[in-house]
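Researcher: Go.
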Amino acid sequence: MPVWKRLLILPPILIGIALMVLQVQNRSVPQRVDLAERARAVRAIPVPETAVVPRARAYGRVRPARVWSAVAQVAGEVVHRDLRLRDGAILLEGTELVRIDPTDYELAIRQREADILATQAELRTLEVRTENADASLEIEERALRLADEDLTRKRELLQRGNASQATVDMAEITLLNKRQQVQNLRNELALIPAERALTEAKLAQLQVQLEMARLDLARTVITAPFDLLVNDLAIEQAQAVTVGQQLFTGQAIDEAEIEAEAPMEQIRALSAGIGMGLTRERLTRVGSIPIEAIVRFTLGDLTAHWQGRVVRWAADTIDPTARTTGIIVAVDDPLTQAIPGERPPLFNNLYVGVDLRGRPMPDRLVIPRSALHSGNRAYLAGADDRLIIRTVRVGLVQDDFVTVTEGLDPGDRVIVSDLMPASEGMLLSVVVDEALLARLTALAQGLEPSP
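Model: Structure:
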């Protein structure tokens, strides 16, 4: 290769070296930058002190407050049945629903009445016998005295020789006969009280049988004991029924009950709010309990509600596994409150929810439940906007908030946003969430429903 061609590589190399020299000469000296602490943006609210309304949400099925089973107490043929007596029919109190053939029971009444008349005649006969026996006894006692005097006189004559022994013997026989007659009358009078007592007992028994016959006659007519909804109809006209046969059932329409199950912790909070513990006496007490109850039913986009009353605790429905207990809520006039298209009737077995609200508990510190960490720690923003991790003691626990009994003071800024990781003393940039504070206060006071 010619020498001149090899020399052609030198210019590019020289140009590259020149460029490197220029870059080294023109480079800037690195400047030192001090790192600044970075603040984490968080949302916080001042801890409010407010009245708290304890709440619980329970679920259960509707059942009638009273269920009546129409059972035949007498046997016979059904001679009348109200034409409206059908499943699902509503019949008013006092309506004659079923009549069983009363003929046999009317005859039984006549028979008992006749037996009573005969027994009363026996008593009158005993009274006459008593009067006759008393009169006869008086006569025979007088005759006995005369016979005794006659025997004495004849014995005196016998001693003087003016009478024979045969005459004396005849007088003595007459005296003995009179004594026998008097004794017989006395025996008869002694037996009459026992006969009278036996006859009076028989009369009393017949009168009881008469009352039973009249009661059986009354039982041939079955009337509605209260306004009821008919179910389980099992008879027809001219059907023969037996004693103990169930004819139909009737459910009271004036009141319905819901045995609702709720967590025991929430029920305990409700009880604490009204000043009553879950003692055996409290659990079994019947009567209105000062807890507000709203019964709710949801079907698609339809939500209906009824005003209820907590009437008693269901002490026998405590579930130790699910940690729930029952509470009985009553709703008045569950059928007549129905509004077509808006509120259905509260029929039996309808599954509903119950919102329970106790009495307000004053002066409680409240924080959102989400602001509680590890069960007993709260994140606070200190006066210098640095993180404080504080252990607290929780009181009432609700779905969306808790009350704090120890560890916080009113106005402490509790952090309500996620903070991961959380280090004690880290710098914060705090923004007060006024909307959350207002909603928390409303929830605690029961002014806004839980989501």
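Model: Helices lie at 3-6, 10-26, 103-160, 165-218, 264-273, 280-284, 434-444.
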